[in-house]
Write a structure and sequence with these properties.
alpha+beta, two-stranded antiparallel ribbon
């Protein structure tokens, strides 16, 4: 379940534009996502201010990225750009993903049903 960040010394995670596009400018990855750590209070605030998500764990961020990239997709090309946008704000040069409410609700529902 996506939850607001909690005070902790542990890493938090977010989802950003895939480095294949962000660093490599490969158009195949324009709708791709990857998880990225946010390990400072300033980075967490930056993600939240941009409208991005904060996850408590790496696996949760990865699961969301996979879901958003391939939700209703029949191919291997990631399509997360259909379910959100990318902020001008970035973490390590990779744009922060800003999902639509609809995709986060579908992800939360699919995770609840799989437990």
């Amino acid at each position: 379940m996506i939850s607001p960040s909690k005070k902790s010394d542990n890493y938090k995670w977010t989802v950003v534009r895939h480095s294949g596009f962000g660093y490599g400018n490969n158009p195949q990855f324009i709708g791709g996502l990857e998880s990225h750590d946010v390990n400072t209070k300033a980075a967490i605030k930056k993600v939240e201010a941009a409208g991005g998500l904060i996850f408590d764990g790496y696996s949760e961020a990865e699961d969301f990225a996979e879901f958003a990239m391939y939700y209703k997709s029949k191919g291997l090309i990631p399509t997360a750009d259909l379910y959100g946008g990318f902020s001008k704000k970035a973490i390590d040069g990779l744009q922060i993903f800003i999902p639509t409410t609809g995709i986060t609700e579908k992800w939360n529902t699919s995770n609840e049903n799989s437990i």
